[in-house]
Write a structure and sequence with these properties.
One of its GO terms (biological process) is protein neddylation. It comes from Rhodosorus marinus. This is Defective in cullin neddylation protein. GO terms for molecular function: cullin family protein binding; ubiquitin conjugating enzyme binding; ubiquitin-like protein binding. The chain is mainly alpha-helical. It contains ten helices and four strands, in the order αβααβαααβααβαα. The longest helix is centred in the C-terminal third of the chain and has 20 residues. It is elongated. The protein starts with 5 loop residues before the first helix and ends with a helix.
């Protein structure tokens, strides 16, 4: 396969893996992204983990690493950096972003529970939707006061909501099939926006 050589990919993995286990942990990831000149809090690190279909937060197994690099057709730092940078535009495609967004729920969720804890959910939304949803600040305020944990359904429906409803909430139909939590958020947000207008 052009661009991919198993031997070189294994050598690259071994450079960053933990000493006694066939996986790259947080220390290895810090060194890997350092060599790639990519900040750990850059969203592209999540896109890379999604591209590798990693199953555990801040870990990459040998199989995940080799399978991912094989699919990307790269096996060295220079070509890997270029391929990772090429992942950025995927977040502007709705289908790819939805797949990525839903993958993030399972990636960040504590595997012992079906729901995501509130603080984690807020951090994920802040990173994924900060440039996509105008009223994210209001949503985070509202959810802080009205939820203890976030279900996959709520997490998924919220994305649909941000794509379907105008920023001024015109046309929002509270008789439609939106969950009660979304209805309550719209009422909350409308009130907050009205208050802001009065302050101007």
């Amino acid at each position: 396969m052009p661009g991919y050589r198993e031997k070189d990919a294994i050598s690259l993995f071994n450079k960053y893996k933990e000493e006694d286990v066939d996986k790259i942990g947080l220390d290895g990831l810090e060194r890997l992204y350092g060599d790639l000149s990519i900040s750990l809090d850059d969203i592209v690190t999540l896109l890379f983990a999604w591209r590798l279909n990693t199953g555990t937060l801040c870990e990459i197994t040998k199989d995940e690493f080799l399978s991912g690099l094989r699919g990307m057709r790269v096996c060295d730092i220079r070509s890997l950096k270029s391929s990772i940078e090429n992942l950025r535009p995927l977040i502007y495609d709705q289908k790819n972003f939805r797949d990525f967004y839903l993958w993030c729920f399972d990636y960040f969720r504590d595997s012992r529970y079906k729901t995501m804890d509130l603080e984690t959910a807020k951090a994920v939304w802040a990173q994924l939707l900060k440039e996509q949803y105008t009223h994210l600040d209001l949503w985070l305020e509202f959810i802080e006061a009205n939820a203890c944990a976030i279900s996959r359904d709520t997490y998924s429906v919220f994305l649909n909501f941000t794509w379907s409803v105008a920023d001024d909430f015109s046309g929002y139909d509270d008789t439609a099939a939106w969950p009660v939590l979304i209805d309550e958020f719209v009422e909350y947000a409308r009130g907050k926006l009205a208050e802001r207008e009065q302050e101007i």
